[in-house]
Amino acid sequence: MSKGGSGVDQEFLALERELAVFLRRARAQSGEMAREVHPELEPAAYGLFVRLDDAGPQRATDLAGYFGVGKATMSRQLRALEQLGLVARDPDPADGRASLVRLTEEGQGRFRSVRDARRERYVRKLADWDRSEVAELARLLHHFNVRSEG
What is the 8-class DSSP label of residue 3? Predict the structure, then answer.
């Protein structure tokens, strides 16, 4: 590893710089995507849609843990989505005291329409990339995300 004059690994400085740009753009895009699903949604809602669509019904506490936010924050976000008719809660068959949050048909339809448009943008932006490069980027990001949990 190369060290700069301050003794800091240049590779990690470069990683930090690129992640900062990536995250800033991702936050802005998530806000746009959330508003495309419904004009009243806050940016964090898009990630909830992604998780619920990928993993299926989840307990609110599991969602809070997955995203690293407090239960109160998650409850507020889910309440707003419920009021818009985009998510619903059903009793958890494993524990009648708990409920599972799921996308409604309306929420799933709106989300998938926006998600498909987003994927088309990725296809256009990465058209000159080899498929193996796209797969490697996805693999590395997944590895990074797994390491970042908990």
Answer: B
For 35-61, write each residue's pLDDT tens digit: 888 888 888 888 899 999 999 999 999
The pTM score is 0.76
* Separation CA 122–CA 41 (nearest Å): 23
Amino acid type, 128: D
Rounded Cα distance, 80 and 34, in Å:
13
Return d(Cα 11, Cα 93) in angstroms, integer. 48
Q: Could you tell me if 63 and 74 are in contact, meaning their C-beta atoms sit under 8 angstroms apart?
A: yes
Q: Are 87 and 78 in contact (CB under 8 A)?
A: yes
How many CB atoms lie under 10 A from the CB of residue 2? 7
Task: Write the DSSP string, 82-104.
Answer: HHTTSEEEEEETTEEEEEEEEE-
Query: Do the beta carbons of residue 102 and residue 52 sit within 8 Å?
Result: yes
Residue with tokens 């936010």: 69
